[in-house]
TrEMBL record:
Keywords: Repeat, Ubl conjugation pathway, WD repeat. Belongs to the WD repeat cdt2 family. Gene3D superfamilies: YVTN repeat-like/Quinoprotein amine dehydrogenase (2.130.10.10). It comes from Galdieria sulphuraria. Transmembrane segments: none annotated. GO terms for cellular component: nucleus. WD repeats lie at residues 176-212, 280-309, 383-412, 421-463. Pathway: Protein modification; protein ubiquitination. GO terms for molecular function: protein-macromolecule adaptor activity. This is Transducin family protein / WD-40 repeat family protein.
């Protein structure tokens, strides 16, 4: 599976970045000296609240690829909202009154909308660093930027639907239906300009969608309803062939009619937690992970069809079992592949992260990372843009960073984290690394907060006033600081398509729905 230089160039061109891009001097320095300069403060934190002023958990965060210079963060939460935050505007945050906590971005939304009507991208030309809109009436578990210019955002929700939102027109373009369980992961196929994407669900199915197909027009919502063009059905059902050191001895039946009836039921489908397209071979290769069988499977989409009852994977591996670290497979929470497609990051619920060469899956992982706590399917991990580092959330309220290149040079198979970030109060669920500016990280957690981490060279003003938190070496004890971040408070009124601002005398039309009220935290 060696990637040719031509395909690499095409893939980099899709992201409007050449593969020979010069990363900042950040990664030319020693790892520890660089990573310990990451910091965050209350000014660069957002807390999400619902209309009852209750915290709203966040499930996913992702930096854009190209729009806004690749520095726009998209987050999704339990109430079905997607929030966009332009981190590039933080460069002018000289004082507290000019930061995310200020009311500057609330200045005349109607005028901004009229001014942005003829521009290519409304959000990125706006003076407002934060905007929020509701896409689903249920929790959103996954999102993905689509298109060469990040024109669309795809969201997967607990309502068993995938929706594609146009950030230029502020409308839902497509609703993708076919799943019978919550959507856990969405990824676009490379080199298709966001027209082809795949979704994974708790129903055990992976579905491939093509938005170029003609759908049914919905009179109620005005969008196009699409059906999948390809389905991989029940691909991670747990069977007796999985490696397990324990014997599968049949249990003696209980004298219970209910137990006997349940034991006669066929096996129910088991969920697919994550998926990744390989950026080579025209992106026909797809990696999927299972929640129950604990397997990673590689598929060639050219060998599957809608008429098939079951499809056969090219390869199946069980992280942890191949390495002899566990006596049984554990569920996989997330997958992430490097931009050149060489390495695959597998985050497991056994509190290990396994790294594989994409062309050598059957040989087992070349490294496993440990030191964090991950027993939840909501905790995810990702590579840095250059593939030198791995960033992961954790159940102990920290985010962890590993230097895999340094460990590889020392022939270390098991690698402890180089750094931990005192990110949150509760579990850190998702993490993201800016693709165009390696000096920026983002973390979200169960404490309903999103935090932006930057290098110290970007620090402006006296940040000590704002309870600054610094990254420290993993061996250094860290005291958790309970800061009061900027709060996003939503009040939804389904009867009126307006946005009510903090000024009660201002009532302006912006989005069709919902009504969103932004307010700064009290200090």
């Amino acid at each position: 599976m060696r990637t040719s230089s031509t395909l690499r160039t095409l893939f980099s061109r899709e992201l409007e970045r050449l593969s020979r891009i010069e990363y900042s001097t950040l990664f030319r320095m020693k790892s520890y000296e660089v990573l310990k300069t990451f910091w965050t403060s209350r000014r660069y934190s957002c807390e999400f609240l619902n209309d009852d002023n209750l915290p709203v958990p966040l499930f996913a965060v992702e930096f854009s690829k190209t729009v806004g210079g690749g520095q726009i963060i998209a987050t999704c939460d339990e109430d079905g909202y997607v929030t966009l935050i332009d981190t590039s505007k933080s460069s002018s945050f000289g004082t507290h009154d000019n930061g995310w906590c200020s009311a500057d971005f609330r200045e005349n939304i109607a005028e901004n909308r009229q001014k942005l009507g003829n521009t290519q991208n409304k959000f990125c030309t706006s003076d407002r660093p934060i905007v929020s809109f509701r896409v689903h009436e249920n929790a959103i578990f996954s999102l993905c930027w689509l298109g060469l210019q990040d024109q669309w955002i795809a969201t997967g929700s607990g309502d068993q639907k995938v929706k594609i939102f146009d950030i230029n027109k502020n409308v839902i373009m497509n609703t993708l239906i076919g799943h019978s369980g919550s959507i856990k992961s969405i990824k676009e196929r490379h080199m298709t300009d966001g027209k082809v994407l795949a979704s994974a669900s708790r129903d055990g199915n992976v579905m491939l969608w093509d938005t170029r197909c003609q759908g049914l027009h919905s009179q109620e919502t005005g969008d196009s309803v699409l059906r999948p063009v390809l389905i991989l059905k029940d691909i991670h059902r747990r069977d007796m062939n999985i490696p397990d050191k324990r014997e599968y001895a049949p249990k003696r039946p209980r004298y219970s009619i209910r137990h006997r009836k349940n034991s006669m039921k066929p096996n129910i489908p088991h969920g697919v937690t994550s998926l990744e397209f390989a950026p080579f071979n025209d992106s026909f290769y797809l990696y999927t992970s299972g929640a129950v069988d604990g397997a990673i499977k590689l598929w060639d989409l050219r060998r599957a069809s809608l008429k098939q009852v079951t499809a056969e994977p090219l390869s199946t591996i069980y992280p942890g079992c191949q390495e002899g670290l566990t006596d049984r497979p554990h569920g996989i929470s997330s997958l992430h592949i490097t931009e050149d497609g060489s390495n695959l990051c597998v985050s497991s619920t056994d509190s290990n992260i396994y790294l594989y060469k994409t062309g050598l899956l059957d040989r087992g992982s070349f490294m496993h990372l440990c030191g964090h706590t991950s027993s939840s399917f909501y905790i995810k991990a990702c590579f840095s843009p250059d593939g030198h580092f791995v960033l992961s959330g954790s159940a102990d309220s920290f985010a962890y960073v590993w230097d895999i290149k340094q460990s590889s040079s020392k022939s270390i198979k098991a690698n402890l984290p180089l750094l931990r970030l005192p990110a949150h109060i509760n579990e850190v669920t998702d993490v993201a690394w800016c693709k165009t500016d390696t000096t920026k990280l983002a973390t979200v957690g169960d404490d309903s907060q999103m935090k932006l981490w930057q290098t110290r060279k970007q620090q402006a003003g006296n940040e000590s006033v704002y309870e600054t938190q610094y990254a420290q070496a993993e061996s250094t004890p860290i005291e958790k600081e309970h800061s009061m971040p900027f709060k996003i408070n939503r009040q939804v009124n389904r009867q009126s398509p307006t946005v009510r601002l903090d000024n009660p005398n201002t009532l302006l039309t912006y989005f069709e729905k919902p009504i969103t009220r932004f307010c700064a935290a009290s200090h």
